[in-house]
Specification:
The complex is a heterodimer of chains A (about 280) and B (about 80). Chain A has eleven helices and two strands. Chain A has helices at about 15, 25-45, 45-70, 80-95, 105, 125-130, 175-180, 190-195, 205-215, 230-240, 255-265; strands spanning about 140-150, 150-160. The longest helix of chain A has 27 residues, at about 45-70. Chain B is globular. The mean pLDDT of chain B is about 90. Classes of the chains: A mainly alpha (about 280), B mainly alpha (about 80). The interface of A and B includes residues 62, 71, 139, 160 and 182 of A.
Chain lengths: ~280, ~80
C-alpha cells in the first residue's frame, strides 16, 4: 500500500506486524470475505461458478505467481505452468484418493440451499486464498520460490510487505539497483545463509565492526575527505555481503549503504553506518 | 494476463485474470448473439483481439489495467476540477 492514513499510529509490535495495517483495508477484506462466504454461494449458479468464478480465481493465482517472478524480478519463468499443472494434478489425485480431505467444503455451514452440501461454497475457499495475497501492495504474501544464489539452489520465501523490505537481496549488478531495483525489493528470509555464505563461513565480526565504527586508517569513520566511504572500506563492505562470491569490484560506493545494512550484525542495528 | 493486467502489480494479476475470463463471454454476447456472427469466426476474432491488446498495452501502457485503474481513481478524486 502506498499510503498511510493520518493519525493511524502503531503503538505495539503486533500492530506493526498485522496483515492489514490500515483499518479501512481490514474492514474491506472482512466485507469481501463475508460476501464470498455467506452471499455468493446462495446467489451464484453453476454456470457462473464453473465458467466464470473458478477460472478467474485459478488464473488469478497463476498470474500472481508469474507476475512476482516476471513483473517484480524481471525474470523469465519457464516453470510456472509446470508447477501449476503439478499442483492441479496433485489436488485431483488427493481429492479422488482421499475423499475425506474435502471436508473443508463439504462441511461448510453455507451453500446447502440446493441439497448438495457445500458444493457452492467451494469457489469461496480459493477466493479467500486468492484474496489473501492479493489484498494490495502492502501484502505480506509469503510465497516459496526456488532460485539460484551464488551457484547453489536455495529456497527463498518472498514477502512483499514494506516491513520485510528492510532485508533486501543484494543484486549482482552494482549501482543504484541494489537500493531501488526490482530484485532489490524482494526480501530473502534466508538471510543467514547469505550472511554466512554457502561455504559455511561466518562473516568476520571485526570487518563488520570496522564497517560500522570506521577504520582510523581510512579517515574519519571510514570516509575520505569527500564524505564517501574510503576505497578499502567499500571493498571490505562488499566482501562482507558477498563473502565468497569474489566480486567486490562490482560494488560501488553508492550501493554500499544498502549492503552494509545486510552485513550489519543484529546487535548493532542502532548504530549508524559509516556509509549511511 | 499479466501483460494486460499490469506487470509488477498484484491488482493487475486479478484484473488480467478477470479480463481474460470475461473477454470470451463479452465477445460471444456481442458478436454472436448481437451481430449474428458465426461462433468459429468469433472465437478466432478473440485471438486477434487478445494479440492486439497485448501489443497495445506493451507500447502504450506497460503497467496495464492496474495503471489505468489508478489513473481513473486520481482523475475521479479531482473531478470535476482540472487541478
Amino acid at each position: 500500500m502506498f499510503y498511510r492514513e493520518a493519525g493511524d499510529f502503531k503503538t505495539t509490535y503486533a500492530d506493526d506486524n498485522q496483515t492489514f495495517p490500515i483499518a479501512f483495508d481490514r474492514y474491506r477484506y472482512y466485507f469481501v470475505l463475508f460476501v464470498g462466504l455467506a452471499i455468493v454461494p446462495f446467489v451464484i449458479n453453476d454456470y457462473w461458478a464453473n465458467a466464470i468464478l473458478l477460472p478467474f480465481l485459478i488464473y488469478a493465482i497463476a498470474a500472481i505467481g508469474l507476475n512476482i517472478l516476471t513483473g517484480y524480478c524481471g525474470q523469465v519463468s519457464l516453470g510456472t505452468g509446470g508447477f501449476m499443472a503439478v499442483g492441479a494434478y496433485t489436488s485431483y489425485k488427493l481429492m479422488t484418493a482421499f475423499p475425506w480431505m474435502d471436508m473443508v467444503t463439504d462441511h461448510a455451514p453455507v451453500g446447502r440451499h440446493d441439497g448438495h452440501r457445500g458444493r457452492n461454497v467451494r469457489p469461496a475457499v480459493p477466493a479467500h486464498q486468492g484474496l489473501l495475497p492479493g489484498r494490495g501492495d502492502a501484502c505480506g504474501a509469503v510465497l516459496p520460490c526456488l532460485g539460484l544464489q551464488q551457484g547453489a539452489v536455495v529456497l527463498q520465501l518472498l514477502g512483499l510487505g514494506p516491513d520485510q523490505r528492510a532485508g533486501t537481496l543484494p543484486v549482482r549488478s552494482g549501482g543504484d539497483r541494489a537500493e531501488r531495483g526490482t530484485l532489490g525489493q524482494l526480501p530473502v528470509l534466508l538471510r543467514p545463509s547469505l550472511r554466512t555464505g554457502l561455504d559455511g563461513a561466518k562473516p568476520d565480526a571485526r570487518v563488520n565492526r570496522a564497517a560500522v565504527d570506521g577504520d582510523p586508517r581510512h579517515g574519519h569513520r571510514g570516509r575520505d575527505h569527500r564524505g564517501e566511504p574510503a576505497e578499502g572500506q567499500t571493498e571490505r563492505l562488499c566482501r562482507v555481503v558477498f563473502l565468497s562470491s569474489a566480486s567486490p569490484d562490482r560494488c560501488s560506493s553508492r550501493s554500499t549503504s544498502a549492503r552494509s545494512r545486510l552485513a550489519r550484525p543484529s546487535g548493532s542495528r542502532n548504530r549508524s553506518s559509516c556509509s549511511s | 494476463m499479466i501483460i494486460i493486467g499490469g506487470l509488477g502489480s498484484l491488482f493487475g494479476s486479478f484484473a488480467g485474470a478477470a479480463f481474460m475470463v470475461l473477454l470470451p463471454v463479452a465477445l460471444k454476447v456481442l458478436l454472436v448473439d448481437t451481430f449474428g456472427w458465426d461462433t468459429a469466426i468469433a472465437t478466432h476474432f478473440q485471438f486477434v483481439v487478445v494479440g492486439l491488446l497485448i501489443m497495445f498495452f506493451l507500447i502504450v501502457e506497460p503497467h496495464g489495467l492496474a495503471r489505468l485503474w489508478a489513473l481513473l481513481k486520481e482523475k475521479l478524486r479531482l473531478w470535476p476540477f482540472p487541478h
